[in-house]
């Protein structure tokens, strides 16, 4: 992205309040190499009465993963779609001829997903699958939330350690690893590794003898869109042999993992896999292994429109855990989530770089205005060899959203979207009915956070897209409170651990919809209703009234009550 584009990109909402302007005018400042404040500055900003544990967290970098300079703070009803509109408008008005696709990432949506996860699976420690989306903003916000990280190679381990994540919060979850990368893990203190074959055991004995191994078992993922058991995982009948070999080689096996693949339509696959893990735990314990890690893998849906909702999957998992690994059994339960956290948080804007109209010379096929029927072929600056790879791998048909709303009187034409590669397979979508579009127009696609970032392709002549991060003030405050509420022993253990129940977190932090309208932001709501309704100015009266307003807005009672009692509301 050129400096000229950066200068001319407009990211200021028309209704932005005065204090917002400096932040929003600097929407792309991070692309100029802006760094977070030094540690000394962050410590100076910490309240003087902070307890020792909180200040120690600051010293260890826990509060430094994400700062306000890493994203655009939005409020007053300003959404990601508004931000995207401003950015595309600025790009269209730029004098440069080269305009590239770009992402807008709602970090607040990731925060909201995290609290939902803790609510639905309170016994499970989330680890983020870095391969899904390794963008800096995502890694920082998840590290700030206390997640562990599941890495598949040296590059991913380097990424998360570079931002300050301790080795104890990293699992090297690749059953087939290069020797050099095993040595890297050993050198940098990464102890938890996965395996599914004898050769991997032999490599670990030589290169990382102190590693704690997790045995990856195969599952029935025959109904999943993206299957993994064809490539990874050992069958149940071979588990005992591997566990015996590990014992003879003095390799410590501490747990079992599985992955049912992505897009599995049957939540019972998790229950069956958990039952299989119980059998392997019994084998390992019988052979003298100290089995205490259960890794549920991934495959969790990342969108609201998935065939099986996350809450349904969580319900099945909780029932299976209660049956096979009841609370208090001493087993640490993990999950490796990728799509779940990032899919819906990212929206991408791509531009039309070329178009052609193909006349369909068919007798009797004429439009009302008398012209010959035609189909329109649009060429985009991104294709299936870049950010739209899901078309090839996940059989997804992306649906574009037009930046310019067409009038109801505009005729629609049969249309198709193609990527920039000189290749007949680079078809993004076809069979669409769109109004007449032009070169330079922008198309927007939602739910583009998984396996898209960093997917530039020399074959298609594209580069990795730039990302603009945004977060609502509500989500930012929730993130900050999550840090201060973290239990001191969690940091000592080095493993992310939710509070006793996920409900406590959502209730305590008053987390609501990300990019909430101004009417349900505390200051905005009280100021709006104050003119129309007389509020009884008794101690706590105004706050109770605010809580009632939250209830009327549809917020949960527990959140409204805790908000009404909050002394921070003016």
UniProtKB/TrEMBL annotation:
Subunit structure: Monomer. Interacts with OAZ1, OAZ2 and OAZ3; this interaction disrupts the interaction between the antizyme and ODC1. Does not form a heterodimer with ODC1.
CDD domains from the UniProt entry: PLPDE_III_ODC (cd00622)
Gene Ontology, cellular component aspect: axon; cytoplasmic vesicle; dendrite; endoplasmic reticulum-Golgi intermediate compartment; Golgi apparatus; membrane; nucleus; perikaryon
UniProt-recorded name of the protein: Antizyme inhibitor 2
Family label: Belongs to the Orn/Lys/Arg decarboxylase class-II family. ODC antizyme inhibitor subfamily.
Domain Orn/DAP/Arg decarboxylase 2 N-terminal: 108-342
Keyword Iron: no
GO molecular function: carboxy-lyase activity; ornithine decarboxylase activator activity
Superkingdom of origin: Eukaryota
Gene3D superfamilies membership: Alanine racemase, Lyase, Ornithine Decarboxylase, Chain A, domain 1
Summary of the function given for this chain in its UniProt record: Antizyme inhibitor (AZI) protein that positively regulates ornithine decarboxylase (ODC) activity and polyamine uptake. AZI is an enzymatically inactive ODC homolog that counteracts the negative effect of ODC antizymes (AZs) OAZ1, OAZ2 and OAZ3 on ODC activity by competing with ODC for antizyme-binding. Inhibits antizyme-dependent ODC degradation and releases ODC monomers from their inactive complex with antizymes, leading to formation of the catalytically active ODC homodimer and restoring polyamine production.
Location within or outside the cell: Cell projection, Axon; Cell projection, Dendrite; Cytoplasm, Perinuclear region; Cytoplasmic granule
Keywords: Cell projection, Cytoplasm, Cytoplasmic vesicle, Golgi apparatus, Membrane, Nucleus, Polyamine biosynthesis, Pyridoxal phosphate, Transport, Ubl conjugation
InterPro entries reported for this sequence: Ala_racemase/Decarboxylase_C, De-COase2_CS, De-COase2_N, De-COase2_pyr-phos_BS, Orn/DAP/Arg_de-COase, Orn_de-COase, PLP-binding_barrel
GO biological process, one term: positive regulation of polyamine transmembrane transport
Chief place of localization: other
A Pfam short name: Orn_Arg_deC_N
Origin species: Macaca fascicularis
């Amino acid at each position: 992205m050129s400096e000229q584009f950066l200068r001319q990109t407009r990211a200021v909402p028309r209704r932005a309040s005065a204090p917002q302007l400096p932040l929003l005018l600097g929407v792309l400042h991070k692309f100029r190499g802006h760094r977070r404040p030094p540690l000394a500055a962050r410590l100076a900003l910490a309240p003087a009465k902070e307890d020792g544990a909180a200040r120690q967290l600051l010293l260890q970098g826990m509060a430094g993963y994400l700062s306000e300079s890493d994203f655009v703070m939005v409020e007053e009803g300003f959404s990601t779609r508004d931000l995207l509109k401003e950015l595309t408008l600025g790009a269209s008005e730029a004098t440069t001829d080269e305009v590239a696709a770009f992402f807008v990432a709602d970090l607040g949506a990731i925060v909201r997903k995290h609290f939902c996860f803790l609510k639905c699976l309170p016994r499970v420690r989330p680890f983020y699958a870095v391969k899904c989306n390794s963008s800096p903003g995502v890694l920082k916000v998840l590290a700030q939330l206390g997640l562990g990280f599941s890495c598949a190679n040296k590059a991913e381990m380097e990424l998360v350690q570079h931002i300050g994540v301790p080795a104890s919060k990293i699992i090297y979850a690749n059953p087939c690893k290069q020797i050099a990368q095993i040595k890297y893990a050993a050198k940098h203190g990464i102890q938890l590794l996965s395996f599914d074959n004898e050769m991997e055991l032999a490599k670990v004995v030589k290169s990382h003898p102190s590693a704690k191994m997790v045995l990856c078992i195969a599952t029935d993922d025959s109904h999943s869109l993206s299957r993994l058991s064809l490539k990874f995982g050992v069958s149940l009948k071979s588990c005992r042999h591997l566990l015996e070999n590990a014992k003879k080689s003095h390799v410590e096996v501490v747990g079992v993992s599985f992955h049912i693949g992505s897009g599995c339509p049957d939540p019972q696959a998790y229950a069956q896999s958990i039952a299989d893990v119980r059998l392997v735990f019994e084998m390992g314990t019988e052979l003298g292994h100290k089995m205490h890690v259960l890794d549920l893998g991934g495959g969790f849906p990342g969108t609201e429109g998935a065939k099986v909702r996350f809450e349904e999957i969580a319900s099945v998992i909780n029932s299976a855990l209660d049956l096979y690994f009841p609370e208090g059994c001493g087993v640490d339960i993990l999950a490796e989530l990728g799509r779940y956290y990032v899919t819906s948080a990212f929206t991408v804007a791509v531009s039309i770089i070329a178009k052609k109209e193909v006349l369909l010379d068919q007798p009797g096929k004429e439009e009302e205005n008398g012209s010959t029927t035609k189909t329109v072929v649009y060429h985009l600056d991104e294709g299936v060899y870049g950010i739209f790879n899901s078309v090839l791998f996940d059989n997804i048909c992306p649906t574009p959203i037009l930046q310019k709303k067409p009038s109801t009187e505009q005729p629609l034409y049969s249309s198709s979207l193609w990527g920039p590669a000189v290749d007949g397979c680079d078809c993004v979508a076809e069979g669409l009915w769109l109004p007449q579009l032009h070169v330079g127009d922008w198309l927007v696609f939602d739910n583009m956070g998984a396996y898209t970032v960093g997917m530039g392709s020399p074959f298609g002549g594209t580069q990795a897209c730039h990302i603009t991060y945004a977060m609502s003030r509500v989500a930012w405050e929730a993130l900050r409170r999550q840090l201060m509420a973290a239990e001191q022993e969690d940091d000592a253990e080095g493993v992310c651990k939710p509070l006793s129940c996920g409900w406590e977190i959502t209730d305590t932090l008053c987390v609501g919809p990300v990019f909430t309208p101004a009417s349900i932001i505390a200051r905005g709501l009280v100021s709006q209703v104050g003119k129309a309704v007389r509020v009884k100015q008794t101690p706590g009266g105004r706050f109770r009234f605010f809580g009632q307003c939250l209830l009327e807005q549809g917020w949960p009672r527990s959140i409204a009550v805790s908000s009404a009692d909050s002394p921070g509301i003016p």
